Amino acid sequence: MLNKIILKLSVFVISMAALMLWMPLAAIGFLLTLFTLWFFRDPERNTPQDSNLIISSADGKVCLIDEAYPPEELSMDSQKMKRICVFMNVFNVHVNR
Questions:
Q1: Looking at residue 70, what DSSP letter applies?
Q2: pTM (2 decimals)?
Q3: Cα–Cα 20 to 30 A to 7, which of 24, 53, 55, 69?
Q4: Are 67 and 83 in contact (CB under 8 A)?
């Protein structure tokens, strides 16, 4: 009788210890999953149709417009081209179109 009580108590203590270890890890994993889904969201966009507009491919703030040579690994002509740099913070949509 005493052995059964001790066995049940030890199983309970081990189970609670396992829960105390795994539940925080599971919660952290769940929160990281939610953050990843939010970070890489892909909302629908209504693009205006006007030939005089320039539409950015990324959300964010345009921080630089200049001319630069393309990287050598692209095997393009080595002539200067327009370069537009867009800074995206964590709240911007990180899906480029």
A1: P
A2: 0.54
A3: 24
A4: yes
* Side chain identity at residue 64, one-letter code: L
Whether residue 97 is predicted with pLDDT greater than 70 in this model: the reply is no
Rg of the chain over CA atoms, in angstroms?
Answer: 27
**Tokens at 90, concatenated:** 């964590």
Task: Tell me 82's DSSP state.
Answer: E
Measured between alpha carbons, how far is residue 37 from residues 17, 24, 34, 43 in Å?
A: 31, 20, 5, 12
User: What's CA 72's distance to the chain center, in Å?
Assistant: 29
Q: What is the mean pLDDT of residues 54-82?
A: 88
Residues present in the chain in total:
97
d(CA 3, CA 85): 72
